[in-house]
Amino acid sequence: MSSVVATMSISLDGIGSGHHQTEERPFGDVPEGALHRWMFETPDENRAEIDAIVAAGAFIMGRNMFGPVRGEWNRDWRGWWGADPPYHRPVFVLTHYAREPIVMEGGTTFHFVTDGIHAALERAKDAAGDLPVHIAGGPTTTNAYHAAGLVDELALQISPSILRDGLRLFDGVGPLRLQQISGRSASLVTHVRYRVLPVLDAGEPAP
């Protein structure tokens, strides 16, 4: 059975993306590079974590992470990543508007799922085989999977920035109980990985 890993780059105050996304600004009002300098400026220092982000058998993302197009698919948008996206596996995009799959170079195929997070996860698990399924974001999609209790592990890349306003990880999720698996500091980021544990009932002692 595939494990489900949510992975996201966030600021110290939990912001994973900004409002007012456009084609020129994939993360909206968040300053360019605020969350991902570690990936682009110091890739060798963070190679293991970069490789781990794309080491899934299948991926799930929200429509806003896939692109800025809203409403019906009225243009041939194929994602932010060019002809050869970094996923090289099936990617299931949550949307309210049906669209035929898009086959890209390198093994990435974008599938568009209109019947919700559970259906997307079922399809992703079927595609992933024994490899994990990664919830790739953005914050709204990741929060929906956390709120539904569908995440097994959480991998965060925490940048030393305070953004104050934007889409925040864990908004509306409710209580979570996490067990730290690993942590590592680098020059531009702190990598932390957690196991998501069942939430205790009120008054129940921790094991």
Characterization of this structure:
It contains five helices and eleven strands, in the order ββααβαβββαβαββββ. It has a nine-stranded mixed β-sheet. The longest helix is centred in the middle third of the chain and has 12 residues, at 117-128. The chain is 18% helix and 29% strand. The protein is globular. It is of the alpha/beta class. The mean pLDDT is 94.
Structure classification: alpha/beta
Low-pLDDT stretches are none
**What's the end-to-end separation, in Å?**
25 Å
Shape designation:
globular
Number of strands: 11
Share of helix, binned: 10-25%
Main pleated-sheet profile: 9 strands, mixed
Mean pLDDT: 94
Question: Helical region count?
Answer: 5
- C-alpha Rg (nearest Å): 17 Å
Report the portion of residues in β strands.
25-35%
Order of SSEs, N→C?
A: EEHHEHEEEHEHEEEE
Give, in spatial order, the strands making up the sheet with the most strands.
5-6-4-3-7-1-8-11-10
Keywords:
207 residues; alpha/beta; two-stranded antiparallel ribbon; globular; nine-stranded mixed beta sheet; 18% helix; 11 strands
Layout: helices, strands, pairs:
Blueprint: E1 4-11, E2 15-17, H1 37-41, H2 47-53, E3 58-62, H3 63-66, E4 90-94, E5 102-103, E6 109-113, H4 117-128, E7 133-137, H5 139-147, E8 153-159, E9 167-168, E10 177-185, E11 190-197
Protein name: Dihydrofolate reductase family protein
Organism: Microbacterium helvum
Pfam families: RibD_C
